[in-house]
Specification:
This protein is of the alpha+beta class. The chain folds into 3 domains: 66 residues, Roll (Structural Genomics Hypothetical 15.5 Kd Protein In mrcA-pckA Intergenic Region, Chain A); 86 residues, 2-Layer Sandwich (Alpha-Beta Plaits), CATH 3.30.70; 79 residues, Alpha-Beta Plaits (2-Layer Sandwich). It contains 7 helices and 17 strands. The strands form 4 sheets. Strands 7, 8, 9, 10, 13, 14, 15, 16 and 17 form a 9-stranded mixed beta sheet that branches. Helix 1 crosses helix 2. The longest helix is centred in the last third of the chain and has 10 residues. It is elongated and about 65 Å long.
């Protein structure tokens, strides 16, 4: 992803919009001008058709055909596939393994957005943007999270309906957005659970409450960002298009 230091800014920190769109990989400069003339470029909520209009790439809210272009900055936004046995923190003298070992060669001071418990694998964000981390973690923004859950025992339709209706835990009622049966075989059931809650170990506690202990748990998606085929223990940068949608969902 392009960084602010890579941009040919003027003395006021501004750049022509068509040049920014070209450098950000949205479209060629000529195509960017066509998009402007067609009324498909917005700056801070206003359609801009005047070629040569300048923008502040760090603060102006830019959309092309409705899609958000995230702010250009030196901030880092990474997707990570957390392995089993890794504690979701950068430093813990009591933990066998932490996230620090996976980012030790990076110059930024990174931290994790939210947590996954030690036994859980899957998608976790790492960043050095405090506002981004706070917004994504705050329950008022209701960012969806999707999990693949393997449990002991064969869950029937009544069990799935009970889970979908909601489960009363010691810290209150928890009701998933969706519950989907994926497979049942060899005394195990694989389901997909979608919910907004970020409570501690909430998926494991929900399933235990309905009598099906979790044997394997993986987070597949946070908001619009999918784990996909990212290998366990590996990192990748979030793309501009992913960040644009994520910034919109978090109200940034």
């Amino acid at each position: 992803m392009i960084e602010r230091t890579d941009l040919p800014l003027d003395e006021e920190g501004l750049i022509r919009i068509q040049k920014l769109l070209a450098l950000a990989g949205v479209a060629s400069r000529r195509r960017s001008e066509e998009l402007m003339l067609d009324g498909l470029v917005e700056i801070n909520g206003e359609v801009v058709t005047r070629l040569g209009t300048k923008v502040d790439p760090a603060h102006d809210l830019i959309r092309v055909d409705g899609k958000r272009l995230p702010p250009i900055s030196e901030k880092v936004y990474l997707a990570f596939n957390k392995p089993v046995g890794v504690t979701s923190t950068m430093s813990d003298p009591h933990a066998a393994r932490t996230l620090e070992e996976f980012v030790a060669d990076r110059p930024e001071r990174l931290f994790n957005v939210g947590r996954l418990d030690v036994e859980t694998t899957g998608l976790l964000f790492l960043t050095n943007d405090g506002d981004f981390a706070q917004r994504l973690s705050h329950p008022s923004f209701e960012i969806e999270k999707v999990y693949a859950v393997e449990v002991q025992g064969l869950m029937g339709q009544n069990d799935l309906r009970q889970l979908a209706r909601g489960v009363m835990l010691e810290d209150g009622l928890i009701k998933p957005n969706r519950v989907k049966l994926l497979s049942r075989a060899s005394a195990k059931t694989l389901i997909e659970v979608t919910l907004h809650s970020g409570r501690n170990r909430v998926v494991r506690r929900m399933l235990e409450a309905v009598g099906f202990p979790v044997t394997r748990l993986t987070r597949l998606r946070i908001g619009p960002i999918r784990l996909g085929n990212l290998p366990i223990g590996q990192l990748r940068e979030l793309t501009s298009s992913e960040l644009g949608v994520l910034f919109d969902e978090a109200g940034l």
